[in-house]
């Protein structure tokens, strides 16, 4: 099983100047837990997660003013579509994150979440007790 088999090919892409409120609204509308942040001045894609937004709110920061660029994970860890899902899961566990940006060359082609991996394995009966 490969990353391409589990990833979501529909990616929420935002810019670095989107406010946290705008990002949260878009994530809620699309029912996703992360947005890929593309900044032409950055070396690669960044990622803004629901956890990043939550931490800003917990610190009392103004989500109407704070922008994605100041809260994202820059140079997000990326995966290739042909990676084995085990390799992707290992990268997530070792990195302590729940989303991988999937790229082919410099193009973002998907996002893989822990939920995607669990869904694929459970549908295929590959989880213990399934």
Description:
The chain has 130 residues and is α/β, with parallel strands linked by helices. The protein has one domain: CBS-domain. 35% of the residues lie in helices and 19% in strands. It has 5 helices and 6 strands. The protein has helices spanning 3-6, 20-30, 50-58, 85-95, 114-123, and strands at 13-14, 34-37, 46-49, 78-79, 99-104, 107-113. The chain is globular.
Secondary-structure blueprint of this entry?
Layout: H1 3-6, E1 13-14, H2 20-30, E2 34-37, E3 46-49, H3 50-58, E4 78-79, H4 85-95, E5 99-104, E6 107-113, H5 114-123
Parallel strand pairs: 1-2, 4-5
Antiparallel strand pairs: 2-3, 5-6
Summarize the structure.
The protein has five helices and six strands, in the order αβαββαβαββα.
- The termini sit apart by 17 Å
Low-confidence stretches: none
**Total DSSP helices:** 5
Q: SSE order in H/E notation? A: HEHEEHEHEEH
Q: Assign the CATH topology.
A: CBS-domain
The proportion of residues in beta strands is 15-25%
Q: Give the total of domains.
A: 1
Keywords:
130 residues; alpha/beta; CBS-domain; three-stranded mixed beta sheet; 6 strands; 35% helix; globular
């Amino acid at each position: 099983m490969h990353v391409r088999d589990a990833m979501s090919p529909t990616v929420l892409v935002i810019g670095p100047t989107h406010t946290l409120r705008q990002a949260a609204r878009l994530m809620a509308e699309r029912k996703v837990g992360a947005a890929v942040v593309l900044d032409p001045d950055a070396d690669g894609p960044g990622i803004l997660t629901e956890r990043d937004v939550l931490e800003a709110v917990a610190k009392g920061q103004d989500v109407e003013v704070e922008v994605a660029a100041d809260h994202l994970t820059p140079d997000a860890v990326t995966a290739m579509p042909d990676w084995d899902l085990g390799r992707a899961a290992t990268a997530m566990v070792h990195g302590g994150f729940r989303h991988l940006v999937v790229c082919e060359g410099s193009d973002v082609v998907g996002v893989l979440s822990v939920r995607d991996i669990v869904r694929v394995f459970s549908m295929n009966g590959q989880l213990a007790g399934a």
